[in-house]
Amino acid sequence: MTVGLDAVFHPRRIALVGASDRPETMGRLLWDNLRSFPGEVVPVSRSASVDGVRAYADLADVPGEIDLAVVGLPADSVLAAIQAAAVKGIPAAVVLSAGFAEIGDEGARLQERVVSAARSGGVRLVGPNCFGVQNCDLPLNASIAPGSPTGDERGGISLVTQSGSYGMAVHALGRDEAMPFAKVYAAGNKADITDAETLAYLREDPATLVICLLLESISDPRGFFTQARATTAVKPVIAALTGRSAAGKRAAVSHTAALAADTAIRDAAMTQAGVVRASSGLAMLDAAKFLAAQPMPTGNRVGIVTNSGGLGVELSDLLDAEQLEVPELSPGLQAELNRLIPSYGSARNPVDMTPIWSRYAALYPALIDILARSGEVDIVIPILLARAGSPEVIQGLASVVTALRADGNTIPVYGCWVTERARQPQADALQQAGIPCLPWPERTAAAAGTALRCASAIGRHSSHRELRPPPALPATTDLTDPGQASDFLAAAGIKVAASVVCDNTDQAADAAARFGYPAVLKAVHPELSHKSDVGGVRLGLADDTAVRKAASDLLDLRAGCRVLVQAQGSGVEFVIGGVRDPGFGPVVMVGLGGTAVEVLGDVCFAVAPVDAEHVEWMLRSLRGSALLDGSRGAEPVHLVALCDLAVAVGDLLVGVPEVSEIDLNPVLASSAGAVPVDWRIVTV
Amino acid sequence: MTVGLDAVFHPRRIALVGASDRPETMGRLLWDNLRSFPGEVVPVSRSASVDGVRAYADLADVPGEIDLAVVGLPADSVLAAIQAAAVKGIPAAVVLSAGFAEIGDEGARLQERVVSAARSGGVRLVGPNCFGVQNCDLPLNASIAPGSPTGDERGGISLVTQSGSYGMAVHALGRDEAMPFAKVYAAGNKADITDAETLAYLREDPATLVICLLLESISDPRGFFTQARATTAVKPVIAALTGRSAAGKRAAVSHTAALAADTAIRDAAMTQAGVVRASSGLAMLDAAKFLAAQPMPTGNRVGIVTNSGGLGVELSDLLDAEQLEVPELSPGLQAELNRLIPSYGSARNPVDMTPIWSRYAALYPALIDILARSGEVDIVIPILLARAGSPEVIQGLASVVTALRADGNTIPVYGCWVTERARQPQADALQQAGIPCLPWPERTAAAAGTALRCASAIGRHSSHRELRPPPALPATTDLTDPGQASDFLAAAGIKVAASVVCDNTDQAADAAARFGYPAVLKAVHPELSHKSDVGGVRLGLADDTAVRKAASDLLDLRAGCRVLVQAQGSGVEFVIGGVRDPGFGPVVMVGLGGTAVEVLGDVCFAVAPVDAEHVEWMLRSLRGSALLDGSRGAEPVHLVALCDLAVAVGDLLVGVPEVSEIDLNPVLASSAGAVPVDWRIVTV
Q: What average pLDDT does this structure show over A148-165?
């Protein structure tokens, strides 16, 4: 007996509920598409037979075991079908029918009843409101999309799509380009099976080499994060996440009823999990095409072979913007290339053979071969302009790549195709020979960049780390009191600046004398969260007189005011904080601090717990990261201390559920350490 | 007699120097392409006749007046041909031959001799090393590019391309898509005619509606800036500037011998001149297609009509990233739209009709019509997915746009085309009907964004302003002395913080007492340019004792040290500066200041002179622009004072050629004003 997603993708016997032979109906479309399925498809229909095959009026009447019910009924008949599937013990159903949560409250209520019937009966549910699923290897086409988007080559790309029609468009593109697809999964309203589950299934699926996600929302974000991190350790995951803008969110809610997540946190979580973002569904497919057809790139150095100087220049620029390098080749390698190309060409890289048509068929393969074997580049991109799109050049490219692979050379070769339309059949031939190509430099560069980011995420170090034991939080602790909060933080490994909260000027003067001058005094009052905005922070107090004067001022600021005394520290200002995201759970934030810099919003998020390595990466990704290394003659900051603080904040949030927010702002970082001089804890 | 570029584009009689009837030669290709020219083409050739037409051995032998010599000879024969053209008084020559500056020093010397012969003989030169020129309206095809990239519709796009083969690829694309081209100009090595001249010509050319520039370098950058500003006042100029990255620059130098400009300054100058940048040559063409075929957009509100929710979401996101808005429609308009679309669709915008194939032909035109007439959007984009790419829908779209124009409605309609390849003929038909379309949302959104930026640049306010009279710069003035420099700046309208330079502690103490405490002391010494890095700046000196101590420290810092005394100011730190760019001349810079912020490089450039309006735009474009409006309860800064400083710096650089650099850093901006507290002038 197959179960769960295995029943969805590898059923042995299928019931098509709503089968029909009336043209232009969903029931007919599904029936036709299921013809290629090697097992039996039993029609369930109001007709006595469909296409000459005996049909059953009710799913419950179908004799024998069924692994998968494909449901193409009107919305109001779906509940009964799922109840019947439950009674019959069918492990999975694909519900294509629309008219559920996406149409509003009434549909949402109906959807809830369907899900509840499925769950209580042990039926896993795909959809509703989806175009179906495909397993191109079986083949299984339990969808309304015609045909399979896979050429003669064995597949490798698996697509999960939330949007039905967009998914169908991607599917059609895949067919036109004979892209190597493995599985297609239209998630629709995702009423039952979560994105996390789908991802976990595809991770274990040997036919899936690259996973493409076209999503407007993520169900169970924290579960998704965990599964995604495990998945990208072994295979690439590329995601086109839509619904980022206000209008995009509104449109997504309009048609999928999904709630939008905090985009910054969602994006950070994706990056942290190794999921590589693509700017659009098309860009996602482009990169998948490169990854599925060629070996993974192992570095960022690109060798370009071109017959057009201008296109070489543009591709170099666009690759640079994708963090790919087009390095100048060594003198020895240039000399080797120069023996082949005209004297007015260039071997520096881009390798520009100039428009010498008559020699294209010889030069393209020869130059690619030399570059791929040189050890000086990690990727080779031939630009195939105009007459380079000829059968002879295609044949030469196919041969040279075959020869490279036969010799164990795994440098990927991606084509950049720039010809008039009439040469499109040659581009198709190139792709059928296993060399993927994209039109014009911009898409080529973007896909190469995405492919490299995917490859870099594979097997990225992710060692297991024991979390710090969470500090006890007795019910008597008042974390709004800076003193008690500092003790609590210390127990969690977060050492803030030595401070004393004082009730009068004498105490303040004593404390300042003990810490040493210059001193800092801060007003402490539950209603003063932005102290500096109301003159509640006094810096650089040089002596006892200045401290007493400041203390007196601050104590008078408001009834019940106390005053916190610290020694004045110095260093670069950072912020470190943590919040609980409704979807991703505990999240850590690091960024540049100081009132002037805060308006720049130079911050970075990560799902907690985090390790120091990732925090360092976050800090390095800040726009102002140069401050870490010491700018204008300053010493580099104590990176280990700074990272440790963020790690401890993450562990604290994970370990103490009562804490909903931590804010260390500013943290003064210098070569000596990283010290929070102001801190705030919010509890639930 | 036609002259200059007019002779190039509108010749009456042409000599083809190097004409041939041997297949696959440049001479034959040119001869064939010139067949469509309505005037006489006289072959100059070693053969006695070309294609049955009597040929002359030498250009000098050709009887009668010639307006344009088209030269397709080997490089070493070009000089003689140009000398002959000079003798014969031919006003212009297009030199396609390669083998000049692009191949190295020897070629550069040959090119110089050719240019010098042309200039002394009054011959204007296109190229060398180019693929030629076309005037699609004449028609004139004096190029090696086959055919004319223009459909039946009258043209409008003029292309200037530096790269030959890239230009040819764009040309081929134009032919495939029947794009409305007016003129094609391959600039090649730009040995004689500058980009500024070409631009000035195309500005006055009534057939040119949109100018596309595909450039790796800009000849005469300041002249180009001036012409570009005048041109974008009347028609759109879109530029794809390549050679931005290190590899791109290397490649550009390899094949065009052009020198790279400072990218940040070049980009800023383009924006200031109203030239809109495209990310690639293809993206440039995409936007030109939108602009040439449809009326200019007059606002950024887009109405989307779609049959796919998912694609509507993605297009909304991508438009948002281009600063286009997809506004929620008014309840009244939604009600009107809802009468037409299914109840499970959405009229909020995107207007989602859902995949109801049978009604596409009726719904697409009807919904577009309502949106275009609603006054609620400035652009309408139908997404044509799958079966929407049908002849019936195309016909309906063509009719509704015709009807809108007949009623004086000028809302542009751009198609977003997402279908399988088999439907491409329908996309072509749509474009032939004057409705441009692009495949998939990403290119559509980018082109719409570029088109709107172009439209916004047209006729942008650019009033004439009298520059401030430049201050006198007597030979005795030493601008490295902060005191003399401050007097000089004051004469130019730049009032820096009141300061005194002192030689001893008593003087410093007196000055500080006069300005009031807290005081600031700064070391003054010719070798100390980054004073703060060596402890040469002392802030917050509270009293006489502190001032004396600091003065004594600073005077001891180095032999010959003096000390500058100021009152301590406060405010947000900005930098204002000016430099002389080798290409663009005097350039003004504004940005955020302060050591912590400087590492962020949050600065913006403009070609001087600038007006206050543009400086305000520059300040608003800073990432930290929120600081202008007062963050965290601070008052907004005195924008007028801040802008005035930058205007004055620009005028000073323009008026006083001896000044090569001015650096006001920091400028303390508050609600009371903007005061430079440190300044530096570099003279040539």
A: 79
CB count in 10 Å sphere of residue A622: 19
Q: What is the CA radius of gyration of chain B?
A: 31
Strands B415-418 and B499-502: unpaired
Token pair 């005077």: residue: B555
Proportion of chain A above pLDDT 70, given as a percent: 95
| DSSP annotation of A576 | E
Task: Spell out which residues of chain B touch residue A327, defining contact as CB-CB under 8 Å.
Answer: 247
Inter-chain residue contact A627 with B596, CB threshold 8 Å = yes
Q: Provide the chain B residues 2-31 that lie in CB contact (below 8 A) with chain A.
A: none
Mean pLDDT for the stretch of residues B676-684: 91
State how far the Cα of A437 lies from the Cα of B71, in Å rounded to an integer. Answer: 37
In this structure, are strands B585-592 and B603-607 parallel, antiparallel, or unpaired? antiparallel
- For chain A, the maximum distance between any two Cα atoms, rounded to a whole number of angstroms, is 102
Please say whether the beta carbons of A304 and A312 come within 8 A.
yes
Q: Is A537 on the interface with B (CB under 8 A)?
A: no
List, in sequence order, every residue forming a beta bridge with B439; answer none if it has no partner.
Answer: B417
Structure tokens at B71: 């030269």
Amino acid at residue number A478: D
Indicate whether A420 pLDDT > 70. yes
Q: What confidence score (pLDDT) does residue A259 get? A: 42
- Alpha-carbon dihedral angle through residues A308, A314, A320, A325, given to the nearest 10 degrees: 10
What pLDDT, on the 0 to 100 scale, is given for residue B313?
94
Contact pairs from chain A to chain B, CB under 8 Å: 295
What is the tens place of the pLDDT at every residue in A217-248?
898 999 999 999 999 999 999 999 988 777 77
* Residue A321, H or E segment: helix A309-321
Q: How many angstroms separate the CA atoms of A419 and A430, rounded?
A: 13
Q: How far apart are CA A240 and CA A278, in angstroms?
A: 5
- Listed in order, strand segments (DSSP E) in B173-279 are 181-186, 210-215, 237-241, 276-277
> For the segment B186-208, what is each residue's pLDDT rounded down to a tens digit?
999 999 999 999 999 999 999 99
The domains of chain A, with CATH numbers, are 1-130 (3.40.50.720), 149-293 (3.40.50.261), 305-435 (3.40.50.261), 498-567 (3.30.1490.20), 572-683 (3.30.470.20)
ipTM score over 0.90, yes or no: yes
Which helix (H) or strand (E) is B363 found in, with range?
helix B360-374
First CA to last CA across chain A, in angstroms?
46
- CB distance A631–B319 less than 8 Å? no
Residue ranges with strand state E in A529-640: 537-541, 562-567, 572-581, 585-592, 603-607
Q: Which are the contacts of A206, defined by CB distance < 8 A and separation ≥ 6?
A: none
Query: What values do phi and psi take at A125, rounded to 5?
Result: -120, 125
Angstrom distance (rounded) from CA A51 to CA B207: 62
Nearest Cα residue to B20 out of B58, B48, B40: B48
DSSP string, B561-578: -EEEEEE---SEEEEEEE
Do the beta carbons of residue B633 and residue A533 sit within 8 Å? yes
A176–chain B Cβ distance below 8 A for any pair: yes
Alpha helices in B498-631 (DSSP H): 505-515, 544-555, 595-598, 612-620
Q: For the whole model, what pTM was predicted?
A: 0.92
Please name the residues between 612 and 631 in chain B that touch chain A, using a CB distance below 8 Å: 623-624, 626-627, 631
Minimal CA separation from B313 to chain A, in Å: 5
CA distance A376 to B423: 44
The C-alpha atoms of residue B44 and residue B50 are separated, in whole angstroms, by: 9
Q: Does A349 touch chain B (CB under 8 A)?
A: yes
Of A251, A321, A595, the CB nearest to B312: A251
Contact A467, A609 (CB under 8 A): yes
Q: Which of B49-53, B486-490, B540-544 has the lowest mean pLDDT?
A: B540-544
